[in-house]
Amino acid sequence: MSQISAKLVADLRAQTGAGLMDCKKALLEAAGDAEQAIAILRKKGVATAAKKAGRDASEGIVESYIHLGGKVGVLVELKCETDFVAKNDDFKAIAKDLAMHVAAASPLYVNREDVPEEVVEKEREIAVSQAEGKPPQAIQKIVEGKLDKYFSTICLMEQPFVKNPDQSIRDLLTENVSKMGENLVIGRFARFQLGE
To answer: pLDDT tens across 26-53, in order?
Structure first.
């Protein structure tokens, strides 16, 4: 099976909490079989993030980054479950990488759910007008695709990681949840640019 539907990928992602690309790769490897794909993800340790996602992340750090020349500055709140992990050098390095990413990629929101509904509706209207003249069954897929692309530019969790564009920020956190054995959550961020 060379084509995996977006719905199948989204369903697997909802079940496991794994990143989109991890879900797609697992489904391709499993020839579209969702149960087998879950087993593949579990073997890779990605699905463990879903178990940890519900746990309270009340510790953490606020990391800062000032770009050379002092024209761009960022604060990122990265939360975890214990102060032990918050003091860990790997955790601090992730927070620093996230702050540098925010400086470079200029996201507007942490998650898709944070985007105001009126902004989403405006983008949906634009996508529908751009898809005008296409077959009705294709319009829905085109609109969803355009919205997904839009979210991947403005939502931090969906952006490709600047240090590894093959990996999203969500995938980066999921990978590190597995490594550290704790839930990691980006609480919020602020990006400042001189003159803006």
So the answer is: 899 999 898 898 888 777 765 555 555 5
Average pLDDT, whole number, for the chain?
A: 88
User: Closest Cα partner for 2 from 35, 34, 32, 23?
Assistant: 32
Alpha-carbon distance of 150 to 142, in angstroms, equals 12
Q: For residue 69, give both structure tokens.
A: 């020349």
**pLDDT tens by residue, 57-114:** 779 999 999 998 999 999 999 999 888 889 999 999 999 999 999 999 999 999 999 9
Could you tell me the fold of the domain covering 116-153?
A: GTP Cyclohydrolase I; Chain A, domain 1 (1.10.286)
Q: Say how far apart CA 102 and CA 108 lie, in whole Å.
A: 9
Backbone angles phi, psi at 191, to 5 degrees: -120, 130
The class of domain 59-111+155-193 in CATH terms is alpha beta
d(CA 132, CA 126): 10
Residue 157's Cβ-count burial label (10 Å; 0-12, 13-18, 19+) is buried
Report the candidate in 171, 139, 167 with the shortest Cα–Cα distance to residue 45.
Answer: 171
